[in-house]
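We treat protein structure as text, and this decision shapes the records that our systems exchange. The remainder of this section carries one protein's record, kept here as part of the documentation:
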Amino acid sequence: MSERKFKRVLLKLSGESLAAGQKQGIDSTRLGQYAEQVKAAVESGLQVAIVIGGGNIFRGLQGASKGFDRVKGDQMGMLATVINSLALSSALEAIGQPAEVFTAIDMHPIGNHYSKWRAIKAMQEGKVAILSCGTGNPFFTTDTGAALRGVEVEADVMLKGTRVDGIYTADPEKDPTATKFDKITYDDVVARGLKVMDLTATALCKENKLPIIVFDMDTPGNLAKVLTGEPIGTFVYQA
C-alpha cells in the first residue's frame, strides 16, 4: 500500500458518521473535519470524487421495515444523500475549496445531472465532485453507487471512510477477540461473509479491479495518512 500513488480517488463517506455523537442529522464539527481533510487532499494535487450515504437522515430499508413502499423508501434515501452532499459542498466552499454537486436524477438547480465527463471535468478544474443519489435506482445501496461511480470516473482506488479502522474477522465493537486484516482479497471478503459492503458493490469492484481501502475517516488526519501510504486501514484487492 505504501508504494501506491493515486491521481484520482473515489471517497465513500458514511451518512451515520456525519451525525457524529448525534443519532441523526448533521454534526457541524464532523462536517468541518471532513471538509478540511478533503481540501488538504485536493491541495496535494489529488482529484477527488465523493459519494456520501444518507443513513443519518433516512434509509430505504428501514422505511420498508416500517411499511413504506420499498421503491419510495429508496427514493427518500436518495434525497437524504442530496441533503448531505449539499451540506458537504457548502462546508468545502466555506473554506475556499470549490465543489460541485451532481445528482443521478435530474434535480436542477439543486445539482447538475451526473455524467462521467462532467464529473471528471470538474475534478480536472480542481473542484471536488460530490456524486449524490446513489445509482439513481431503487434496490441499490450507496456503496454500490460508490463502486459504480468509482469505476466510471476511472478512480485509482475507492477509499471507504468508516468509524472503524479497517476490516476485522468479526465486529470489533461486539467481539473483543476480533482481529484486523492489513489486506484481504475480494474473494476472501465474500467467502468469510465480512460486512465490508454489499455483494453487488464488492462484485463490481472485483470485476473492474478497483481496489478498496477501508479506514477510519472520523479521526482527523487519517485521510492524509492513507494517501501518503501509511499502513492504516485494510487494503482490499484482486488476487
